[in-house]
Amino acid sequence: MANGNLGIEPEVLKAIYGQMTRIRAVDKAIQAGLSAGKFMFTYWPMTGQECIPATISQLTSERDYMVTTYRGIHDQVAKGVDLFGMFAEALGRQDGVNKGKGGSPHISDPSSGSMVTTAIVGAGAPIANGLAISAKERGEDRVTIVNFGDGATSIGAVHEAMNLAGAWKLPVIFMCQNNQWGEYTPIPDYTASPNFYGRAEALGFRGVQLDGNDPAAFYNGMKDVIDHVRAGKGPVFVEAMTYRMGPHAGVGDNYNADKDVLAAARERAPIEKTRALLIEAGICSDDELTALETATAAEVEDAITRAMASPVTPATETVIDVFADVTCVPQRGVYPERADEGALPADTKSMSMVEAIRDAQHIAMTKNPEVFILGEDVGDPQGGVFGTNKGLQTEFGKNRVRPTPIAEQAIIGAAIGSSIAGMNPIAEIMFTDFFGVCMDQVYNHAAKQRYMSGSATHAPMTIRVQAGGGMGGFGAQHSQSMEAWLLHSPGIKVVYPSNPIDAKGLLASCIADPDPCVMIESMMLLFTQKADVPTGDYRVPLGVAKVVREGTDITLISYGWMLHQALAAAEELAKEGISAEVIDLRSLMPIDYHRVLASVKKTGRALVVHAAVEFCGLGSEICATINEELWGQLKAPASRLGAEYAPIAYSQAIEFSQVPGAAAITARARATVKS
Question: Of 311, 333, 364, which residue constitutes the final position of a domain?
Fold first, then answer.
């Protein structure tokens, strides 16, 4: 049969079938092993969807980026992830591609271009944008393909990502593998949309629908799509029509499907049709294909056998890969002493905190062309809601300072993806309250990527965010101090400066850090605090607290704008003959327990003060550690003082009483000393 009749080069069709055969062998081996109790791991079958990644594999290389989902074993196989490493990962073994720490739903293999696998529906789309940004900015012709199912089209993250990609003409393909089921729910039960590809047109870019079960048609359609994206013409949404013949999770058939529908889908299944076509066209004989299938099954079995012989990832690995430096992980009884910043540069200039933050970013962007800023309204003339970026877009251009849609998931996801690719983004979120809009991207992806990947990938990104409270007039949704939420998410570093000098030095350290960092900026201090700030590049190291006032009777521990309330309280206490030592934590994660404990050993008493709600706040953690470590040496139990357990009120009378001030701190410290 001639090539023209096939619609595809014979060797390409044979190669696609070869990949489909490998995928089917993997699927069958997993289902057989799980059914027999040979091994156990979580599995979401993709039976029937083999043609999509097998075909894409003939149009892309390991240089092209891929993001996929927990139902992405077929994508991983076709992308070129080593089968032994993949199975070892799924089994939680040391030789897994990610040291057994991510497992089957979290595979990352940058050597093959498989960058992120997410178990959160739709969450990979914003991250794919970041990978695409890196390729575009570096002048590379890589394409990024993000795979997801039809069910993910209901998630806001996908819409946010599509809108951003269209606005910025990013080289990304949104690959919707429409298998007709959103987990256990068929399409008509969860949307009235007649299709999904049409949503791209509504957002201003191209969408196509292709037959994901026909290798020739899908190959030709995808070649046109990939050529379009690789040429810099912007994103494309592909709705690849297929059918999932297995259940949402586990093994066997799709027991939610009507039997007649499932039987018809089996008739259209791509592997059997392609095999028959290869024989009918005279490209391969039955014996050749049988030999190929036998060899593939042997390859898979060998990978499984070796993977099962690999040692289980041991408990000694528990805190490895949380951060690049394991000493940053808080561990009971382990309190490292870190060197402080030492002498700062002599040349200084009087700066507000806003100016210091802007200066830190300016220096970082000048030194490193892969540092860029993104966030709502960050461009000129506004320069961000508080003007912390003013003038930077004018100097560095619109690609280095990127105003975004009002879409926090898209902002953080783009920062994650570009940082995984090696860039150093600074993402700005206006208020800590708004973390609620994008917390999935923060604590499920930025925070966990290093750990889930066994350090195969990591996210050296910075998030800058403002915290209100104690000022009056902003109300419950613009005034919270949300550091405790972040601190309870392993993998994120958090700093909270109290003055312009530390703001600049901490931000510089965050931008240069290999892990995701959040800098919380007290809105109250942005314009009210001025200091002689060094004009050159300097770093305030993360995990180093500072004694800002010496004392002997009690240690007051605080950070951010509450540090100034603590200092004011120390002045009042001094009038009563009580000598208060004041510690500015500066860095909350990693935390400097060494300096905290050294101070409390001297004074015998401690009071931790913060603007955040007292209940379950950082103060509780610090007090618990002090009381456990220094019990018997204390003159009184360590205590904490935070905001009352209520949203921040719009009423100033309520707000100014619910958030601690100098008078409340003075009273609590006085009572502690005299108890």
Answer: 311
Rounded to whole angstroms, how far apart are CA atoms 331 and 333?
A: 6
> For position 648, what pLDDT does the model report?
80
Catalytic residue, chosen from 478, 488, 564, 594, is: 478
Bridge pairing between strands 181-182 and 185-186 = antiparallel
Tens of pLDDT, residues 8-56:
999 999 999 999 999 999 999 999 999 999 999 999 999 999 999 999 9
* Tokens at 141, concatenated: 């012709």
Rg (CA), the chain: 28
Report the length, in residues, of the chain.
675
HSE-up of 153 (CA within 13 Å, CB side)? 26
Residues 504 and 558 in one domain: no
- Domain end among 505, 534, 563: 534
Residue pair 581/601 in contact (Cβ under 8 Å)? The answer is no
Spatial neighbors of 285 by CB under 8 A, at least 6 apart, are 279
- The low-confidence residues of the chain, meaning pLDDT below 70, are 1-4, 469-473
Rounded distance, CA 580 to CA 554, Å?
5
Percent composition of the chain: helix, strand, coil (DSSP 3-state, to 5): 45, 15, 40
- Residue 525 and residue 576 share a domain: no
Distance, CA of 425 to CA of 427 (rounded, Å):
6
What is the C-alpha separation between 387 and 544, in angstroms, rounded?
28
Query: How high is the pLDDT of residue 3?
Result: 47
Kindly state whether residues 288 and 384 are assigned to the same domain.
no
Please tell me the total count of domains within the chain. 3
What pLDDT does 470 receive? 65
- The residue among 93, 95, 146, 91 whose CA lies nearest residue 117 is 146
> Mind listing the pLDDT tens digit for each residue in 662-671?
999 999 999 9
Q: What is the pLDDT of residue 1?
A: 37
Q: In this structure, what DSSP letter does residue 345 have?
A: P
* Structure-block tokens of residue 24: 């089917």
Structural tokens at position 198: 């049409």
Task: Name the residue range of residue 417's domain.
Answer: 348-534
Tell me the C-alpha to C-alpha distance, in Å, between residue 531 and each of 350, 360, 503, 527: 5, 15, 11, 11
Amino acid at position 577, single letter = G
pTM of the model as a whole = 0.96
CATH number of domain containing 552: 3.40.50.920
3-state secondary structure of 350: strand
Q: Which residues contact 48 (CB under 8 A, 6 or more apart)?
A: 179, 213, 242, 243, 244, 245, 246, 265, 266, 269, 270
Q: How would you classify the pairing of strands 181-182 and 517-522?
A: unpaired
Q: What would the two tokens of residue 387 be?
A: 């003007």
CATH number at residue 223: 3.40.50.970
AA letter at 482: M
478 tagged catalytic: yes
